[in-house]
Design goal:
Blueprint (H helix, E strand, L loop, with lengths): L1 E5 L5 H10 L5 E5 L11 H17 L4 E4 L2 H6 L9 E3 L1 H11 L4 E6 L1 H6 L1 H9 L4 E6 L3 H6 L6 H15 L5 E4 L8 H8 L4 E2 L2 H15 L1 H6 L6 E5 L4 H11 L5 E3 H4 L3
Parallel strand pairs: 1-2, 1-3, 2-9, 3-4, 5-6, 5-7, 7-8, 9-10
Helix pairs in contact: 1-10, 4-6, 4-10, 8-9
Length: 262
């Protein structure tokens, strides 16, 4: 089956899109809510957490895993698993490098992601002349989780973050956190009509679809029962609520600790 790895519930935005794109295939999602948010975690600790998540999904039967968390994507690589491992950073960086008119690309995301430098490395490998300007945006995730989408406070905070990028004349923006997807409209409006906003959710979905098409043996081996299961490492009323916000409707979350010694 197809496994989806995230640091919390933000990856459910990508899970919904992938499920809509490949509805016939079986999915299993794992979000490490017990250790979320990961914004201020050190990179070594993030890697340890991410590897444990990979192990959980592998033991549950995942044959290919998509890392929907940008920060997890920064600390993992293909050598970390004996099965195909895709991430959300590579296709998002590729789209930004290709679509930027002047090569001035802005990024907002968790501190850990910004400090990792992974996006700059990926973008420069595709387009050496590009310049990435990154800023941490720690206030956006809780606003998304509380569904403060139309609040004036949210508009002001988004505007404040993006002002830093605007004055540096960025022409392309990467909102590099799964939870930002629910704030996409506000982010797009505050970025302005001249700025192209990359959608990491669609980028990783297209990446998965293309990868499976190019690996027909793997595709043929995947179960096609249309089933999906959503595990979290800590199940609470709060995460059930944010799951509905991110996925767009109620879904049944399962406590990973109940079914496995995570």
């Amino acid at each position: 089956m197809i496994g989806l790895l995230d640091s919390g519930t933000g990856g459910l935005c990508a899970a919904r899109q992938i499920k809509e794109t490949l509805p016939e295939y079986d999915f299993i999602y794992f979000g490490d809510t017990a250790r979320s948010p990961c914004d201020n975690r050190s990179l070594p600790l993030l890697r340890k957490i991410a590897l444990e998540g990979l192990d959980f999904l592998s033991r549950k039967g995942a044959a290919v895993i998509v890392v929907t968390c940008h920060s997890f994507s920064a600390v993992l690589d293909e050598k970390d698993s004996n099965f195909p491992l895709l991430n959300i950073v590579s296709p998002s960086a590729e789209q930004a490098a290709q679509q930027s008119r002047k090569g001035r690309i802005g990024l907002i995301g968790p501190r850990s992601l910004v400090e990792s430098g992974i996006y700059e490395k990926k973008i420069r490998s595709i387009r050496p002349d590009a310049k990435l300007i990154s800023i941490p945006a720690p206030l956006l995730m809780p606003l998304a989780e509380e569904a403060w989408i139309k609040h004036p406070e949210t508009n002001r905070i988004v505007k404040k973050y993006l002002h830093y990028l605007k004055v540096r004349q960025t022409d392309t923006l990467i909102p590099a956190s799964g939870s930002y997807a629910v704030l996409a409209k506000t982010i797009g409006q505050k970025a302005g009509k001249r700025v192209r906003c990359i959608d990491p959710v669609f980028a990783v979905c297209d990446h998965l679809k293309s990868y499976l098409k190019n690996h027909p043996d793997l595709l043929a081996s995947l179960p096609q029962n249309g089933s999906s299961r959503y595990y979290v490492s800590d199940l609470s009323a709060f995460y059930q609520k944010t799951a509905k916000i991110m996925f767009g409707k109620n879904i049944f979350l399962e406590d990973a600790g109940k079914y496995d010694s995570f």
